[in-house]
Q: What sequence folds into this?
């Protein structure tokens, strides 16, 4: 969801930098890449350790909660995403959501996009689901998410969309194909496991993966 469907990765950066600035630290792009895809408590610990912040995980999360109650409802849909989701729904292709977010932060992020997210029928919130034992880059979240589909598809029948290195590694470890749409600043050589890397969802061609092609210009 974050950085792939919604522009919330930009909002996370704003929020994390607000906290880091209080202690004279910088939330760098390198640190951002390392935590993307991690579960809530995992990324909090990574930031605290990476920036040497005098905070506990619970203190850090309490501070971010106030920030994100303001920022997350401002999230926007990324280019090409709504077109693809509606196209897959119209063609009866089962689709779901596998996000490392908790259910609580998910609700904040989709506040103004509920109609679109209702189309993602099968949802897994990695930081809230007890079946997801480990966050990305471990495969847990994608295996749990796929098991929610009625036909219980084999991993090789599942196509994952990701923006993070950790997410690509998780999907690959799960035995699934993965289309990566990364931040343009990311060194793409760091994600050799990706089946395909695109600049934007606008560039995705469903027929490359055996899905119904778009019947009209996106």
A:
């Amino acid at each position: 969801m974050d950085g792939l469907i919604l522009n919330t990765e930009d909002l996370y950066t704003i929020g994390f930098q607000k906290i880091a600035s209080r202690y004279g630290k910088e939330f760098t792009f390198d640190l951002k890449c390392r935590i993307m895809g991690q579960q809530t408590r995992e990324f909090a610990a990574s930031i605290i350790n990476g920036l040497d912040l005098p905070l506990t995980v619970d203190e850090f999360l309490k501070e971010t909660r106030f920030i994100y109650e303001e920022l997350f409802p401002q999230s926007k849909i990324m280019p090409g995403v709504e077109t693809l989701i509606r196209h897959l729904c119209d063609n009866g292709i089962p689709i779901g959501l596998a996000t490392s977010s908790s259910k609580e932060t998910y609700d904040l992020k989709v506040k103004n996009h509920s109609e679109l997210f209702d189309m993602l029928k099968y949802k897994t919130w990695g930081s809230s689901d007890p079946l997801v034992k480990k966050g990305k880059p471990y495969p847990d979240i994608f295996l749990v998410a796929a098991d929610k589909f009625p036909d219980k598809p084999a991993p090789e029948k599942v196509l994952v969309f990701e923006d993070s290195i950790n997410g690509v590694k998780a999907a690959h470890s799960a035995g699934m194909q993965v289309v990566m749409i990364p931040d343009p600043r990311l060194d793409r050589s760091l994600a050799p496991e990706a089946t395909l890397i695109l600049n934007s969802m606008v560039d995705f061609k469903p027929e490359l993966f055996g899905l119904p092609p778009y019947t009209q210009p996106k």
